[in-house]
Amino acid sequence: MTTTHSNTTSTIACLVIGMAGSGKTTLVQRLAAELSTRDLCTYLVNLDPAVIQIPYEPNVDIRDTLNYKDVQVEFQLGPNGAILTALNLFATRIDQLVELLESREEQVDTFVVDTPGQVEVFTWSSSGSIIAESIASSFPTILLYVVDTPRATKPLTFVSNMIYACSIMYRMQLPLVVVLNKKDLVSTEFAQQWLNDFDTFDEAMQQLEGDYSSNLARSMALAMEEFYRVISCCSISAATGEGMDELWNCIQKAAKEFSSFRNEKNHISMKQEAASSEMQSQGASSSQETSRQRIAKKLICQPTEQSKQITQDTFLQRDVETTSLVEQMNEEEEEYQALLNQFSTSWPSSQ
Ligand SMILES: Nc1nc2c(ncn2[C@@H]2O[C@H](COP(=O)(O)OP(=O)(O)OP(=O)(O)O)[C@@H](O)[C@H]2O)c(=O)[nH]1
Ligand SMILES: [Mg+2]
């Protein structure tokens, strides 16, 4: 912990998440160093039970309460399973962490939480939700999703990274900042363009000669456009500290959006409760709704002001685009099937 709390505004909590090796830990160290030069006080939490060395002094360290190797032996797990289980065990004590953070609130400007590279913690395991939800119940909480940009220069890798970010944001219902860690190796211009303009992404996809995976990535990217509109994004180098001003601005902006995300979350929960009691009263026949209708409803419930402007027309338009993509894929499937038939008839018998 450095310096003393600078002002009376709420303490922001940043959960730093991202793929393995993307630069989360380096970013936590850099962010703490940068904020201390602005006389802002950070409180650092390490939630990676398997890390051996970390380049900062954590105020709370999961390794003090859980021995990752013991978890591996006791539950007979591999390394990834042991990390998930350690987080699950830690989540059972999350009230103690939150109490500790609350007791430091007066002195601290920002809580920064470092997490393990097993992104499954936040995509499907319950511990990620419990930890995020508990912290968010006491502080304005945001997600910093770190992207290893040099490893995301291929459109497919990029879009799959974004799908993770999107699924985490909607699961946690927290504002998300995409942090493009350039690692001093690449320009992040391509990623900024792909996030802002589908056509530039599409151009990059066309260079892949229209195979099945490129069609899939293209339709995914189309579906992701709404997500791209509600996130903020900045380019940094965690090692050199480049871009930290922009990151801090994004953090503050995202923290301001926190309450609208929470209101939206409460609104969605109320709607879900109302829908489920309506379903119960109408009986099983009411489950006739198609999955597309359910997805459309979900998208309509996106948690920002802009998203409220999404109209039914957007979905109709998207449906047309999706349908034509599906038709195109079906045609290609037929061609592929014909080729396969030809191949199997011309294949010499092994006898
Ligand atoms: N050159 C350079 N290297 C970086 C940068 N950020 C991270 N790295 C390096 O990338 C490697 C992984 O960085 P970490 O910060 O440990 O990444 P992580 O996301 O915490 O990794 P896990 O916790 O294992 O998921 C380290 O060798 C870092 O030194 C950067 O901006 N520039
Ligand atoms: Mg790390």
UniProtKB/TrEMBL annotation:
It comes from the Eukaryota. One of its GO terms (cellular component) is nucleus. Its EC number is 3.6.5.-. InterPro entries: Gpn, Gpn1/Npa3/XAB1, P-loop_NTPase. It is found in: Cytoplasm; Nucleus. It holds the Pfam family ATP_bind_1. Small GTPase required for proper nuclear import of RNA polymerase II (RNAPII). May act at an RNAP assembly step prior to nuclear import. Belongs to the GPN-loop GTPase family. Binds to RNA polymerase II. This is GPN-loop GTPase.
